[in-house]
């Protein structure tokens, strides 16, 4: 079974081999009440962080197994799941068995178990945060880092930024008091998929990318960018 988010991990599941797309999904899986993993159970993919990396781990796992027939995995996903994992798995043939002939294929039995929607609190909370940045003298020169963790989240944020003239081209007319913050915005992406979406679909320059997807990776990417900027300024 493949779990690509914490939301999918909260569904009732059966025992066996579980492929997860990072540490947080693994934690969610292990927190399911009544699920007690033993030595015969396996959780693979804790260090993957994205669909492409997880797909490669799945291929590696089954390439070293003794399975000779086709492999079908239950894929619990959301309504906006990136297609990189299904695409990689469907196009790959595992190594041939000792008896010769074509190697087995990996197929997915996909089930959408959650949907992604924007929180009604996001826009007012985000605008309140920006107004605090605008009005506070002590924060008047701070860079404003925006962390993007998915293409769908990036799409929602960019739509709001353009509406408030914080991202060009703007979708509104007239002057916006928040427009003066535009040059202070910096973007950090949780991985290459989100980075590609921002640059290719939204035309946004991504300033930093997390090497390891997750909160710690995002913070480290920002800190390294700030350190490099500081060294360049002091040189």
What sort of overall outline do the alpha carbons produce when their principal axes are compared?
A: elongated
Average pLDDT rating:
84
Q: SSE order, as H and E? A: EHEHEHEHEHEHEHEH
Unreliable stretches:
9-13
What does the radius of gyration come to? 22 Å
- With strands numbered from the N-terminus, the spatial order across the biggest sheet is 3-2-1-4-5
DSSP helix fraction: 25-40%
Question: Which assembly state applies to the chains in this document?
Answer: single chain
How would you characterize this protein structure?
By secondary structure, the chain is α/β, with parallel strands linked by helices. The chain has 2 domains: 2-114, no CATH class; 122-234, Rossmann fold. The chain contains 8 helices and 8 strands, in the order βαβαβαβαβαβαβαβα. It has helices at residues 6-9, 23-30, 51-63, 84-90, 122-135, 151-163, 192-201, 215-234, and strands at residues 2-3, 17-20, 42-44, 71-78, 106-114, 144-148, 185-189, 208-209. Strand 7 (185-189), helix 7 (192-201) and strand 8 (208-209) form a beta-alpha-beta unit. The protein starts with a strand and ends with a helix. Residues 9-13 have low confidence and may be disordered.
